[in-house]
């Protein structure tokens, strides 16, 4: 959480609407330079002046679902400080959509009903015993 003075300074820099959006989605107000927008509509920001180390880059997701699977691999490398240049400036990461990539984003279904569940097709070696109660006569 930031100090009151920093929050007021960021409120003045980004405006009331963006500050309310940041408080709702991020939980903090941040002011920085818009680096780029990816093909999914996520916005990537950077502020090297006032932020703490390793907190200078952040993403504003297009949807409210804060799913890190919505970040492309090149942007993930940049936001994780693995590379210095964003994918818009790095010639290696500028390749765009690769032939093996899906044309649209597939969400991460982990911890949902749509998650992959393994199952066995072999007959179990042990069978469970089911007790049968006989009537008393």
Could you please describe the fold and organization of this structure?
The protein is built from three helices and three strands. The chain has helices at residues 4-14, 16-25, 73-79; strands at 33-37, 43-46, 57-60. Helix 1 (4-14) crosses helix 2. The longest helix has 11 residues, at 4-14. It starts with a helix and ends in a 58-residue tail after the last helix. The mean pLDDT is 80.
The profile of the biggest β sheet is: 3 strands, antiparallel
Mean residue pLDDT: 80
SSE succession? HHEEEH
Regarding quaternary structure, what we see is single chain
The parts where pLDDT drops under 50 for at least 5 residues are none
Q: What shape does the CA trace take?
A: elongated
Radius of gyration: 24 Å
Helix share of residues? 10-25%
Number of strands: 3
The order of strands across the largest sheet is: 1-2-3
Distance between the termini: 74 Å
Tally of helical segments? 3
Query: What percentage of the residues does DSSP assign to strands (E)?
Result: 5-15%
Structural class: alpha+beta
